[in-house]
């Protein structure tokens, strides 16, 4: 909508330059226009056609639906019958994962930090922490929008009414969420919609946008960069152990008379 200010760049440009520096530039279209051309080419069209089309909309004529495409070789690049997999079959067991030394079928593995895998932590961190967005949230994108700030002036952590009562926490109280990595302050949202012993904290804080309460509440200070899925690399955001306590008010220091001033009684 506007030209980039200062050193700001569009998201896509940042991703393209990262791909280039990581050595994958040849696999990643270098610009938005190149990406659009790449997508159009898959449908048999060009940028020029799109620009010349009425209202810049290309409508593809549709014919009759074709069924059992795998028998006709319509699903594989080589035109052979089957599916676009190494075996040519519909694979429930992934031969690609097996090729890289992983199980071909999903295997359940307990996260490193749960009541089952780390019972020694429960005395200090008895609650299970999940982190994520609240609707209509979109990570940190809306922090500067007045409408969002009006609706969510404080980051909140949702917790069960029983867990809140046991800790002397009421709805709207400032609370401290603490894990083995760090702590953040949020506002309690007491609800019966969440399971006992589970809390759910808003993400999107920690940046320069929005009220100070949001700027100081980065949920990633609670998560663990060393816990992640071996195959996808995705970090664990939903099954971490934590404790939630009501935030103590800071006591004002007692005013002490400067003795050099002598008696003022």
CATH architecture verdict of the largest domain: Beta Barrel
Query: How much of the sequence is in beta strands?
Result: 5-15%
Quick check: average pLDDT? 88
Q: What's the total helix number?
A: 8
How helix-rich are the residues, as a percent range?
A: 10-25%
Instruction: Name the poorly predicted regions.
Output: 255-265
The general outline is extended
Looking at CATH, which topology of the largest domain would you report? Barwin-like endoglucanases
Q: What structural category do the secondary elements indicate?
A: alpha/beta
Physical arrangement of strands within the biggest beta sheet: 1-5-2-4-3-6
> How many angstroms separate the termini?
68 Å
What kind of sheet is the major sheet?
Answer: 6 strands, mixed, barrel
Order of helices and strands: HHHHHEHEHEEEHE
Number of strands: 6
Compute the gyration radius: what is it? Answer: 27 Å
The count of domains is 3
CATH class of the largest domain: Mainly Beta
Textual characterization of the structure:
There is one protein chain. By secondary structure, the protein is α/β, with parallel strands linked by helices. It has 3 domains: 11-56, no CATH class; 66-102, no CATH class; 119-246, Beta Barrel (Barwin-like endoglucanases), CATH 2.40.40. It has 8 helices and 6 strands. The protein has a 6-stranded mixed β-barrel.
What does the secondary structure layout of this molecule look like, with pairings?
Elements: H1 11-21, H2 32-42, H3 47-52, H4 69-72, H5 95-99, E1 127-132, H6 146-151, E2 156-160, H7 161-166, E3 174-178, E4 183-191, E5 198-202, H8 212-215, E6 240-246
Parallel strand pairs: 1-5, 2-4
Antiparallel strand pairs: 1-6, 2-5, 3-4, 3-6
């Amino acid at each position: 909508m506007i030209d980039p200010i200062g050193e700001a760049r569009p998201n896509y440009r940042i991703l393209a330059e990262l791909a280039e520096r990581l050595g994958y530039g040849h696999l990643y279209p270098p610009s938005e226009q190149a990406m659009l051309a790449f997508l159009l080419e898959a449908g048999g069209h060009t940028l020029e056609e799109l620009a010349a089309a009425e209202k810049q909309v290309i409508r593809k004529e549709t014919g009759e639906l074709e069924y059992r495409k795998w028998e006709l070789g319509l699903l594989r690049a080589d035109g052979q019958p089957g599916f676009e997999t190494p075996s040519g079959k519909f694979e429930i067991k992934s031969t690609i994962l097996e090729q890289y030394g992983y199980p071909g079928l999903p295997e359940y593995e307990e996260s490193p930090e749960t009541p089952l895998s780390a019972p020694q932590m429960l005395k200090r961190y008895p609650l299970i922490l999940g982190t994520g967005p609240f609707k209509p949230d979109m990570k940190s994108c809306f922090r500067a929008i007045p409408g969002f700030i009006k609706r969510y002036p404080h980051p909140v952590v949702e917790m069960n009414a029983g867990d809140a009562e046991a800790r002397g926490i009421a709805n709207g109280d400032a609370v401290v969420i603490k894990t083995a990595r760090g702590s953040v302050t949020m506002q309690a949202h007491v609800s019966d919609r969440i399971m006992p012993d589970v809390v759910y904290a808003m993400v999107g804080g920690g940046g320069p946008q929005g009220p100070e309460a949001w700027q100081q509440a980065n949920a990633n200070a609670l998560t663990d960069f060393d816990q992640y899925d071996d195959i996808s690399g995705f970090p664990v955001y939903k099954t971490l152990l934590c404790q939630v306590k009501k935030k103590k008010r800071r006591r004002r220091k007692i005013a002490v008379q400067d003795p050099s001033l002598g008696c003022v009684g």
